[in-house]
Amino acid sequence: MSIGLVDTSIFCEIVPVPGRSQQREEVIKVLEEHIRNEVTLLLPIATILETGNHIAHISGGSQRRATAQRFVDLVQQALADFEGPAPWTVPEPLLSPEDVQRYLNQFPDCAMQGIGLGDLSIIEEYGRQCHLHQARRVFIWSLDGHLSAYVRPASSFLEQ
Predict the structure, then answer these.
(1) How far is CA 24 from CA 31, 57, 105, 120, in A?
(2) Which residues of the chain, if any, have pLDDT below 70?
(3) Could you tell me which CATH class the domain 2-159 is placed in?
(4) What is the predicted pLDDT for the residue at 160?
(5) Which of 66, 89, 133, 157 sits at 20 to 30 Å (Cα–Cα) from 77?
């Protein structure tokens, strides 16, 4: 079984967020495949916050409201029950003050590489999941090339 961290670019397609959703059909097909393959999908807090920010900038009021409500429903399903109807959950634990401080310490160097704080937190969560689940495939599911490159194959050392 694999663990996938859902990036903002993917969640904007799933919601969908107008102006941020150009590949929805393809993303939904991959989502269905992940569900069939029992991939554990995690919805990082950065993805939730960034998607919410994109929704807040939709120009049409009624479209903004409807999109915001779909978004809220999807996130609440993930938060309500880890066995609930959503195909993803929110990673536990949420950010600690120590996590935020570590991200801030790394941020100046990351900013020089074009890596924002949200992406940094997703990359850090990827590393945490790799550490927690050493025998499982872990990946960042993203339409952004720099994030989709984060894939750690399943380890075969336990299969010997």
Answers:
(1) 10, 19, 36, 25
(2) 81-85, 156-160
(3) alpha beta
(4) 37
(5) 133
The label of the residue with tokens 């160097």 reads 109
pLDDT in tens, 25-52: 999 999 999 999 999 999 999 999 999 9
Domain boundaries, the chain: 2-159
Q: How many residues are present in the chain?
A: 160
Gap between the Cα atoms of 75 and 2, Å rounded: 21
Are the beta carbons of 77 and 83 closer than 8 angstroms? no
Beta bridge partners of 141: 6
Distance from C-alpha of 70 to C-alpha of 76, rounded to nearest angstrom: 10
Instruction: Specify the DSSP class assigned to residue 1.
Output: -
Helix or strand run (H / E) with residue 5: strand 2-6
Residue 159 has a pLDDT of 43
Question: Is 139 buried (19+), middle (13-18) or exposed (0-12) by CB count in 10 A?
Answer: buried
